[in-house]
Inverse folding.
């Protein structure tokens, strides 16, 4: 019998500082088969002004590229597409403007990911595309940032993202495209200074092989190959030779090196300076190039999530342990929140399913701030969840978690809620209400199971039904719920309690 079911296709888009990349793959058994790659030079980072706002020209270039990519994604389900934005949108104060306009062009959420998350995904992409299972150092020099990772198999152990990239270093050290020994030395020294704080730890940890990924290191490798180094291996000596060749030219647009494309010329000297610094700081002997990068990491993790435990679960558990969370209480609140939310959102769609998962993690971590102090612990919890390094979470997800725990108790100052891009405030309101009720219902921190509780929701009006006579034996809980009614009322919400 012939199986006519079409293989599942997934796609990942990397919104980089210099280029946008899209890769589409077919899921074949336990592996991925890449079926198309698309790349467009967008120069997004060059549109950042002195106030860290993207200019309209850069925004339009990015939107035009996404419009082109969206044609290839016609008919793709939302759970089969992942879009990650990196350094430039992390930095841009008006990133939300770009994302809002992009939503009208490409109907998939755009995640702005932290630097360490970018590093982890780059490592994952490299690890999946390399046959070696030994300890690896992976270096990726992008347009706005450089990621450095040491890992083994598919697990990253050391993760760093530094604010140095070929576009930003070109602007800072090669003004008006001028090349000189002084500018090359200054760019290299600046990068070495950035690496100073981590170099010792990386050298001490060590690695068996060093691998470079993405455009800058690929371009350097191609120039070396065309210059006679057919093995494509990058060494410190070859980088110095390459630097000497670059210094024979006075302007970046005059660069005439075999293997160097015209669109890579403007940022090539800056990229070579940064890689020189990486070799010096970490005392690297040699480096090979890997085809794997961020977009491959996104693809493999997307597929892995259907077969393996989510890395975010491991992150949440590790954070709970780090901050000595009372896991019995956290589990009680989490179970109650999930029970209530199942009644409120009985048939959630994809976005609401993701929000339900964030609600569970928020419940698990709602008391991390107690490790700082009890007064205002909900605010301390929000700060930790917003600013901690949390592998697997993008900025939006961390913002949602921080918002949930910030509003788990006390007054509902909803005007203090942050701007969101993937979700809207109205998406978070049911989660906030659910978590508040779960926290209040478990306020006694008792091992006794809660009675049968029913909840109905109609927008801002919620009704919670408790067993008849519960108030007589739960006077403290009754007082807490009365206080909760007052908080809701001041926020324009209504909580009705029946028995």
């Amino acid at each position: 019998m012939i199986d006519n079911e079409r293989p599942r296709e997934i796609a990942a888009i990397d919104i980089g500082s210099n280029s946008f990349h899209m890769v589409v793959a077919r899921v074949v058994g336990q592996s991925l088969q890449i079926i198309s790659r698309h790349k467009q030079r967008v120069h997004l980072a060059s549109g950042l002004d002195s106030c860290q706002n993207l200019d309209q020209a850069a925004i339009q270039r990015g939107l035009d590229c996404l419009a082109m990519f969206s044609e290839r994604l016609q008919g793709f389900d939302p759970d089969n597409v992942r879009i990650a934005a990196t350094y430039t949108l992390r930095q841009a104060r008006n990133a939300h403007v770009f994302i809002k306009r992009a939503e009208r062009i490409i109907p998939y959420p755009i995640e702005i990911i932290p630097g360490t998350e970018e590093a982890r995904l780059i490592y994952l992409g490299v690890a999946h595309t390399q046959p070696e299972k030994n300890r690896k150092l992976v270096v990726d020099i992008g347009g706005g940032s450089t990621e450095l990772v040491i890992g083994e198999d598919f697990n990253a152990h050391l993760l760093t993202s530094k604010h140095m990239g070929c576009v930003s270093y070109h602007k800072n050290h090669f003004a008006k495209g001028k090349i000189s020994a002084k500018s090359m030395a200054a760019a290299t020294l600046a990068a070495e200074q950035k690496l100073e704080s981590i170099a010792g730890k990386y050298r001490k940890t060590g690695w068996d092989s060093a691998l470079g990924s993405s455009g800058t290191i690929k371009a350097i490798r191609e120039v070396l190959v065309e210059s006679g180094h057919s093995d494509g291996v990058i060494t410190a000596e070859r980088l110095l030779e390459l630097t000497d060749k670059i210094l024979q030219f006075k302007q970046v647009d005059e660069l005439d090196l075999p293997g160097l494309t015209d669109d890579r010329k403007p940022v090539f000297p800056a990229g070579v300076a940064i890689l020189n610094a990486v070799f010096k700081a970490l005392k690297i002997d040699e480096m090979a190039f890997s085809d794997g990068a961020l977009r491959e990491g996104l693809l493999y993790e997307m597929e892995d999530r259907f077969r393996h435990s989510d890395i975010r679960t491991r992150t949440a558990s590790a954070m709970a342990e780090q901050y000595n969370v009372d896991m019995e209480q956290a589990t009680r609140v989490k179970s109650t929140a999930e029970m209530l939310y199942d009644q409120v959102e009985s048939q959630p769609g994809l976005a609401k399913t993701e929000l339900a998962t964030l609600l569970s993690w928020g419940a698990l971590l709602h008391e991390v701030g107690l490790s700082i102090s009890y007064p205002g612990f909900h605010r301390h919890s929000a700060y930790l969840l917003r600013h901690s390094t949390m592998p697997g979470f993008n900025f939006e997800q961390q913002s949602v978690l921080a918002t949930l725990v910030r509003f788990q108790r006390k007054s509902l100052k909803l005007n203090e809620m942050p701007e969101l891009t993937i979700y809207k405030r109205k998406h978070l309101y049911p989660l906030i209400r659910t978590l508040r009720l779960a926290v209040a219902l478990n306020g006694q921190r008792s091992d006794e199971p809660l009675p049968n509780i029913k909840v109905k929701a109609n927008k801002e009006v919620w009704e919670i039904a408790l067993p008849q006579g519960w108030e007589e034996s739960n006077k403290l809980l009754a007082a807490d719920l009365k206080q909760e009614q007052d908080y809701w009322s001041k926020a324009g919400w209504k909580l009705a309690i029946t028995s």
About this structure: The chain has three domains: 9-113, 116-292, 309-450.
